[in-house]
């Protein structure tokens, strides 16, 4: 459940949680509303680790988000997860909450008291935004400035680099409109980790299989080590 208000920024700046499964864990995940005493610089957690916002959209490739979260945390990232409504049909928020050590965000319009919108709070906290898997729908929305859920609002509001990891049927990926949207976003400064050839959910083989976790993590390292050029 998403909450807003003065506590929103506090929770997102909270103390870091355990970095991988099997290590000591907190009694409960940190949630919005928990207070802190000291301000934290944008892009960093309270203990100085970099913060990455991981967007998860609806597709069978959601299952790789579990391994991706573990690898990112092993690489020193504090991971905040934003799920679309459709992604929750493939993997539960509880699973990603347990792996990330944070509550999972997803509801843009949950009515609570306060005035710090969650989408801008997440956007400001991010040193980098990674969307994996990224559907044709999400890519098209960002290309045309549509913001109708939490994830699309975070992506549009952030000043941090944004990386998309497309995953879809090969016929969809090859469609002219999808390729034009990818080209448009690339010209605007967004980054892409392209899909690979592999077995697809429709029992065929083609280009559209989500990139391997190590390939994604390597690209995150490359982008994080370079400039923080803002997507236009």
Global structural class: alpha/beta
- The CATH superfamily name is Flavin prenyltransferase-like
Average pLDDT: 81
CATH class: Alpha Beta
- Note the quaternary state here: single chain
Distance between the termini: 31 Å
Q: Find the CATH topology.
A: Rossmann fold
Description:
The protein has 232 residues and is an alpha/beta fold. The protein has one domain: 3-Layer(aba) Sandwich (Rossmann fold), CATH 3.40.50.1950. It is built from nine helices and seven strands, in the order αβαβααβααβααβββα. The chain has a five-stranded parallel beta sheet with strand order 2-1-3-4-5, sandwiched between helices. It has a two-stranded antiparallel sheet with strand order 6-7. α2 links the parallel β1 and β2. α5 packs across α8. The longest helix has 13 residues. It is globular and about 45 Å long. The N terminus is likely disordered.
Characteristic key phrases:
232 residues; globular; two-stranded antiparallel ribbon; 34% helix; alpha/beta
């Amino acid at each position: 459940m998403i909450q807003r208000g003065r506590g929103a920024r506090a929770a997102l700046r909270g103390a870091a949680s355990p970095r991988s499964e099997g290590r000591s864990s907190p009694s409960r995940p940190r949630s919005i509303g928990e207070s802190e005493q000291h301000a934290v610089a944008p892009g960093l957690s309270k203990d100085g680790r970099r913060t990455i916002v991981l967007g998860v959209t609806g597709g069978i490739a959601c299952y790789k988000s579990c391994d991706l979260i573990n690898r990112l945390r092993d690489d020193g990232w504090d991971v905040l997860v934003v799920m679309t409504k459709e992604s929750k049909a493939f993997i539960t928020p509880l699973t990603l909450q347990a792996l990330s050590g944070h509550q999972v965000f997803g509801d843009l319009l949950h009515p609570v008291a306060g005035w710090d919108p969650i989408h801008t709070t997440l956007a400001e906290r991010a040193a980098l935004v990674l969307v994996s898997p990224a559907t044709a729908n999400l890519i098209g929305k960002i290309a045309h400035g549509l913001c109708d859920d939490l994830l699309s609002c975070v992506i549009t509001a952030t000043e941090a680099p944004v990386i998309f990891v497309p995953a879809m049927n090969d016929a969809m990926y090859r469609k002219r409109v999808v390729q034009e949207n990818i080209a448009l976003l690339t010209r605007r400064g967004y980054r892409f980790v392209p899909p690979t050839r592999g077995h697809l959910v429709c029992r065929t083989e083609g280009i559209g299989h989500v990139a391997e976790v190590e390939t994604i993590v390597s690209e995150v390292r490359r982008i994080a080590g370079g400039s923080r050029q803002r997507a236009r």
